[in-house]
Amino acid sequence: MVREALAHRHAGRHGEAERYLYRALALEPESAEIQLHLADLFGLLGRHDAALQCCLEAVRLAPEFPQGRNNLGNAYRNVGRLDEATAEFRRAISLNKGLAEAHFNLGLVNHQRGDLPGATRCFRSALQSRPDFADAHLNLGFLLEEQGDVSGAIESYRSAIAVQPELIEAHVNLGMQLLLAGRFAEGWNEYEWRLRYPEYGADAARVAAPRWDGAALGGKTILLDCEQGFGDAIQFLRYAPLVAERGGRVVVRCAPELAALLRNAPGVAEAVSRGGAPPAFDAYCPLPSLPRVFGTTLETIPAQVPYVHPDRKKVDRWKANLADGAGDCRVGLVWASQSEHRTAGAKSVALDTLVPLGEIPGVRFYSLQKGEAARQAERPPAGMQIEDLSSELRDFSDTAAAVSSLDLVISVDTAVAHLAGAMGRPAWTLLKYAPDWRWLLARGDCPWYPTMRLFRQDRRDDWNAVIEEVARALQRFAAAARR
């Protein structure tokens, strides 16, 4: 019965698998193994409370079975009961010190709790017991990234790939760590593995036109696809004029919020929103693949700015709207990322964190923040006056016009930072301890954006020192602006 159940589960026939497991359990009601198979099935289906009950029953039936304790720990973790999960993983390890899965799962809990050194030790213990544990290599790489150990993360991702050569996430993460280290040639190649993710590669797979390899286009139409976030689209748009120089009529497909802005960019003949049918085209290339096509190195980054231009009519309206700030240093603020990436929270601060900036005389602040965090500007912290512009920023064309009327943009790692940099405006970007690959390492400038200055955390999660440095710099900037 169990064999048939597992065959049905493997084939995706989950209802049949459940029926066979219950029939097996009727024949062997004291079987901890069948209870654990049921728990695995329920976990797969998202029925975590049912999975927990099966694991509890399995442990009652076989209290000294290490795998049962490990699975119970997973069941507790899936319902958010981390203390109980930790206790069960430790019991599993005490019963079998070589149980790699228990060390690994304890590492996941430690990571979830923010104990990065503890999680690192657990993943290393898992790998001591099982050197071919690809997920342990992969997760160790994540941890080393967060702790700023770029060379260690690269080594871990290479180890994961050695064990599991088709592990997409390891290749993509390896690519980004190589790019962060400035090793662009290998980094761009590994970064191409992102297109194997269903969310990135599915659309490319449907494209009938050939993938562009950099050859002369001879007047043909090429579709450049903004496959990722707003910031990525703005960063890589710089390549559109280079594609046009090779004879291409460039059509950019992007998020609706970007279309009005991008259609005025140099080299772009047309910008169309995702979701609609693009015009006919002869060649295709994902926008973030263009650095690889052009063989971009640190020395050859196309960094001529501005390459994004605001709408003149909107600029005139914004200048009139912000006329009251004449005489002051006008500074736009963005303090929170709206990205859904796992690192988005670490990129963000609360508006309260920026209070030291509000103490600087002669500075007027304007909120360019969008999303839920924009509401913080409705009740700014004591000592900070800030005008909320969010309701008037309907798309990036509006934001670009607003930015053009400001003296400086101070932003965490968001699309607005990219926008200000692409416009050639003064921009200060606040970076978490383990930054995104495009900001490179240990430098205060940005080779992608010549008018940008980078402010980096020296310690993980310590924004206060960053804001103090920004406040000192802003005091000097505002004084110079008044002269």
What is the structure about, briefly put?
It contains 23 helices and ten strands.
Question: Helices, strands, pairings?
Answer:
Blueprint lengths: L1 H9 L3 H14 L4 H13 L3 H14 L4 H13 L3 H14 L4 H13 L3 H14 L4 H13 L3 H14 L4 H13 L3 H8 L6 H9 L14 E5 L4 H7 L3 H6 L3 E6 L1 H7 L5 E6 L9 E4 L3 H4 L18 H10 L7 E6 L9 H4 L7 H4 L4 E5 L18 E3 L7 H9 L3 E5 L2 H8 L4 E5 L20 E5 L7 H19 L1
Parallel strand pairs: 1-2, 1-4, 2-3, 5-6, 5-8, 6-7, 8-9, 9-10
Helix pairs in contact: 1-2, 2-3, 3-4, 3-5, 4-5, 5-6, 5-7, 6-7, 7-8, 8-9, 9-10, 9-11, 10-11, 11-12, 14-22, 16-21, 18-21
Describe the fold and architecture:
- By secondary structure, this protein is α/β, with parallel strands linked by helices.
- The chain folds into 3 domains: 2-196, Serine Threonine Protein Phosphatase 5, Tetratricopeptide repeat; 205-300, 3-Layer(aba) Sandwich (Rossmann fold), CATH 3.40.50; 312-482, Glycogen Phosphorylase B (Rossmann fold), CATH 3.40.50.2000.
- Helices cover 49% and strands 10% of the residues.
- The protein has 23 helices and 10 strands.
- Helix 22 links the parallel strand 8 and strand 9.
Give the strand order of the largest sheet, numbering strands 1, 2, ... along the chain: 7-6-5-8-9-10
CATH class of the largest domain: Mainly Alpha
What is the terminal separation in angstroms? 84 Å
Mean pLDDT: 92
Strand content: 5-15%
Coarse structural class: alpha/beta
Q: Give the second-level CATH assignment, the architecture of the largest domain.
A: Alpha Horseshoe
What proportion of the residues is helical, as a percent range? 40-55%
The biggest beta sheet is recorded as:
6 strands, parallel
CATH topology grouping of the largest domain: Serine Threonine Protein Phosphatase 5, Tetratricopeptide repeat
CATH superfamily of the largest domain: Tetratricopeptide repeat domain
Number of extended strands: 10
Computed Rg = 26 Å
Question: Could you name the ranges where pLDDT drops below 50 across 5 or more consecutive residues?
Answer: none
- Gross morphology is globular
Number of domains: 3
Number of helices: 23
